[in-house]
Structure formats: structure tokens, C-alpha cells
Amino acid sequence: MTGRLRDLVAAEWIKLWSLRSTRWVIGLGVLVMIGISVQRAVDSYNAWPSFTPMEKAHFDPMTLALNGFGAVLLVIGAGSLGALAVVGEYASGLIRTTLIAVPARHRVVAAKVVVVAGVMLTVGALVAVATFEVSQAIMAGRGMGLSLGDPGVPRVIAANALLAPVSALVGMGLGALLRHTAGTVVAVCALLVVLPMSFKPNVHQWVNDLYGLFPFYVWRTCLSLTDPRDSPALPTVTGSWLVFALWPLAAALIALLAVRHRDV
User: Fold this and answer.
1) Taking a C-beta distance cutoff of 8 angstroms, is the pair 157, 128 a contact?
2) Which letter does DSSP use for residue 51 in this model?
3) Per-residue b or e along 125-158, where b marks 16 or more CB atoms closer than 10 Å to that residue's CB
4) Contact of 216 with 71, CB cutoff 8 Å
5) What pLDDT score does 263 carry?
6) Which of 206, 224, 48, 15 has the alpha carbon at shortest distance from 119?
7) Is residue 81 predicted with pLDDT exceeding 80?
8) What is the mean pLDDT of the chain?
């Protein structure tokens, strides 16, 4: 059984990297996000003398590593690749061959989850560490660079790295459910980026609790900060990690159910 799963994982690995879009999105995406981090850090370095004392006191150098725009690109890119891992196979008709060769559909889904999660975790870790290193090296010239041992830094780097696999697995779940390339990409953008970016703390606590169920919102308002604000209106660190864990699990379950109970 273990050998069989290993063969399926190897097959899914070949399928994923046979997509030209995989290499281009990952390669260019990583370089673009590092470039964005460098630009933001250089801008902050140059503007530092003009910062007010209050701005300097509240400045968080970690926001220069994976900033909002870079995170949006990462989420959309990872979510789209996760979707294509499923939708591309349905669009080409290769899924029929796959399911004839492996009637146990849950194993096919499990292999896809392993490959997509593994690849995007590696990409996410590379982006998180690289953007941290370059941005903090630049800010060190102003005495504001952080090191890996500083409070909150490991948590933020871990959260930055996990954005990619979380988004990719959600994209995979949506792809299995919708089975339409353009529709799935739109759904990924809307659910993972556009909707949570419109959220703002509300006077109604139940609304804030609803906001706290979205990965990008908890990342933006809590996990991306070395010192998150302690407010009932904002997500907690523990709750944010639970959201990061539950979304990919739910997405994998949706993908499994969609593939098992729908005709090809």
C-alpha cells in the first residue's frame, strides 16, 4: 500500500511539473516577491529620517518581508496552481486515464494533496526566508533589522511560509468542486483575497468572529505581525493557527468528496 501511494505521488509530481505554468508561476513569482520586498525595504530605509517618533515607535520591520501586495500575489499564485493540479487534468481528459488506472479515487486525491502541499510549502518557505533576509539586511543599515531569534519573528516567518500551501489546497478543493479553470481562479481570488481584504473590525462581535474565519484576514491582522494587537475585535494567535489548519483540511475533504461522488 505504501509503495502504491509512493508511485501515485511520483505520478502526480510529474503531472504538476509537466504544466509549463507551474515552472513560470513559481520561478517568476518568487523573484517578483523578493523584488517587492527589496523595493519596500529600500523605500523605508530612505524615508526613515522623515518618520515621526510615533511612526518609528510603531514600525514593524517584518511587514517589509512579505507585505500586503506580495502576499496577495502569493495567495493568488498558489491558489491557482492548486486549482490547476485538478482542473488541468479534467480539462485535458487525462483524469479518465488516471481513474481507470487507479479506481481508488481517494488515493489519487491523497497523492495530489501530498504533492501540492509539499511543493507549495517549499515555495512558501523559500519566499518567507528570502524576503526576510533581504529586507532585514537593508533595514539593518538603520539599526532596525530583525534577527531570527527576535520575539515574534519565527511565528511570522512560519505564517508567511504556510500561506502558500494553505492557499494551494483551498484552490485544489475549489478546482475539484467547480472543474472550470477561469471560474476556479475567480473563486480563489474572491474567497481568499478580495473578500477578506474588504473586512474591517466591526462593533458587532459576531461579525468580527466571522471575519476571523478567513486565512488572509487572520494573517493580515495577526499572524504577519511580530506584536499583534490585543483586542476582542481582532483574531487571536491561537485562533488564527486553527484557521490555517482547518481550511486546507476542509478543502482536501471537499476535493475527496467531489472526485469520489461525481462522474468524470
Assistant:
1) yes
2) S
3) bbbbebbbebbbebbeebebbbeeeeebbebbbe
4) yes
5) 63
6) 15
7) yes
8) 90
